[in-house]
Amino acid sequence: MKEITLVAEKRIGTGKEASHKVRQAGNIPGVIYGPDIEPVAVAMNTNDLSNLIRREGRTNMLIDLNVSGEDAARKVIIRELQRDPVTSIPKHIDLYQVSLKRKMNLAVAVHLIGVPDGVKNSGGILQQVRRQIEISCLPTAIPDKIEIDVSEMTIGDSFHVEDIELENVDIMTDKKLTLATVVPPTVIKVDEPTEEELAEGEEGAEGVEGAEGAEGAEGEAKPEDGKAEAGKEGKEEKPAEKKKK
Question: CATH number of the domain at 102-190, out of 3.40.50.2300, 3.20.20.10, 3.30.450.80, 2.170.120.20?
Fold first, then answer.
């Protein structure tokens, strides 16, 4: 197991104001806790922590934490890492100091490697049902990662938790649960119209010709227009009556 190191300094003061000052200095506030120890407030360089997580690709790793003013490094793991919801920059970290002789429970990510035969040659689809499992082991036996080779899987094949083989590790997740499976390609069925539906469509198209009758409607309005004009002219030709004295 390779050695992973990180440097931290003890910090004075707690609360929002003290934590804000720590972040302004480019550090992340945190706390170390664990069985049989008093909690210790610390701060570490944010970039150093981010680079470590990016390089290892995980947070569940055993870290030798060198705290300023202490002779021996503390064996810790990251229990919780709070990030800014917008920038994803680490805002606070909880470090758990472990005992190398005591097993601990933690979640480990599952990575699929390879392209299934059922995907390459039969057009199947690879589905990863679960992306992590729960394990129990000594801190020194934490696996770097769990990889599953799916290259030989064909359509209908599944990989279960019980198919994983790990040394010095107890798997706590239900062993019957599925981790990955290859399913047939999705086929979208389009129903063709029946003869009755086709016949109805043709009848509806012929009904459009009835629109020509609109011209007749326009012609019927002409006699009414003529009467209106005649009435108007009659009123204009009637001589005005002379006023009797």
Answer: 2.170.120.20
